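Next comes a concrete protein, fold included:
___
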Amino acid sequence: MTYESHLADLPEDAPWDEKPGESVIEQHDTDAIPEVDVTEEDIAASGEDETNWLIFGNNYQGHRHTTADVITPENVGDLEVEYVLELGEPPNDFQGSPIVVGGDPPIIYQTIGPDMLYAIHGRTGDILWTHFYENADGASDETPPAERGPAVLGDTVYKSTLDLGVLAIDRYTGEEQWYYNGAAAYRGEVAEDVRHEELQWERSRGTTSSHPPMIYDGMLMKGSFGGEFGVSGFYDAIDLEGNPQWRVNMTPEHEWVGDSWQHGGGTAWAASCIEPDTGTVVIPSANPGPWYGTVRPGWNPYTCGKVGVDTETGEYQWHHQDAPHDWWDYDSPSPPLVFEEEVDGETRKFATWPGKTGWVYTVDMETGQLHQRSEEFVQHYNMWSLPPFDDIENAQWIMPDLRGGTNPQTSSFDPQSRTLIVKGLNQPMRLSWFETEYEPGETYIGMDIEHAPVPATQEQEEEEEEEEDETADDGEEAEEEKEETADDGEEAEEEKEETTDDGEEAEEEKEETADEEADNGDGSEEEWRDAWNGYVGVLAGIDPISGEVKWRNWYEETPPWGGSLTTPTGVTFAGDGDDLFTAFETETGQPLASWDLGTAASGAPVSWYDPGEGKQYVAAPAGGERENYTESGNRFVVFSLSE
């Protein structure tokens, strides 16, 4: 890549501080919130402080690892439910991570979609205040957007909003301090109204979500969304008074052909991480736009990968693309993490993440050069086959699916065993593209999609159909007996022969259909079904340095969404799409204990130790509908174990 600044202009006359939406605040027992001064030093040390979880990944490096050690493989089955909260109104989608500020009592800050923030008493579950923001673009009632969590510093809790802004909120009262309007300018052009017209559409799950803010060295950083609406992605840094400092253009103009960058996607809608020694932030990047590549020649950086950026200046450090010039929606939203390891006698720093592509990528943190692509953690079949034009029936079936591999599911890392805990979806799909034109506020995709049916669900449907056929056959036999009793034996025999003839014709039609299907895609339906192991998802433990897949736990009907966390005692907590929240042995993947949450565990769990109670707590955000796999619900379940 030729070096040229990827920073976008930030017009001084843009309405950066104008708030387009409205806030609704409710206060309850706010006096219960203890005064605790949260500093950047506290955030940096959060991963070593068992009483806190002060940042999305519990440290700047994003490990999602706690040092609280009350819970062990031997006693994890003794965990008890401390309380259960029903937050918001379903169907909402927990995809974020709570923040926990230790104190007497600890206080939890939790977001759910759309734009809802709660302050919660960590011991009792009492809601102390709520701040609900009604963004000016509205949100779908049926599929409200996901929220990915807040950030905290000093007396303030920060959350990104669904109109691309940031709210700074007094964390003791829930009252607003200031608002940053990230839609005030776009591609260097000042919005005619408060928000730029190309950044306006109804917010809904799958196309929009809040980005967990990242606070470092006196600045707050946040991303963008809307790759399916033909936006050009950006990543912002603002100071802690809400003033813009720099903006990265995630589709750098000088690296794209013609004007294709202007609608090139590359949004940054998932959590980032930081290597604090060098001050480099690693930013996830989404799909290019539109999904078909004929209108955007070239590699289309930084889409479908990660980019390293200097936190002070916003300037480019390096980038890596999981799927250059993507056609399959193999973007790279999974949050990265940074770790240090000795390789060939030299201590080096690495960034690592799982991709929708079904591999874990580990790159040198200084250069972005690939160190290791892991063994596959989901299956691959016909991968990289280009979709045909307007012909979904003859498209090849491929794996992984566009939902992964790993999508927004947050990984965790156990530094003792050097195990990266990864979730993935394992399912075939086929695609077919068609031409589309960009229109502001309209989807800009140009792709038909078909996902393979889940075998377990299909078998259940076939069994139900067989039962119906058997019931119908029993009725026909009874009718024949009745006719025979009426001495209409000959007529009954003729009807039987006709039925047999009809059955032979139907069987011939079925065989002809099967032959036609056998010509679709790459080989027969039987071929891709034989290639697929039939499991729809996986939880895996992977060594990011060697690339070895240490273990895999497969899921038959519902892929595992949400995140995970690890403990120093060798326990991993992770939920799934079938309502179960499970403790695993980190090194082997052996299940240790499970709890039914009553809804899909779409959020990322956290843990902390409360010295005032002598307990280790584990919070499991659960909620969201995943294609009717489970019942909807917005449950925030907190477990505890006394020492």
User: Anything to note?
Assistant: Helices lie at 40-44, 455-485, 489-518, 525-531. The CA atoms of residues 184 and 195 lie 5 Å apart.
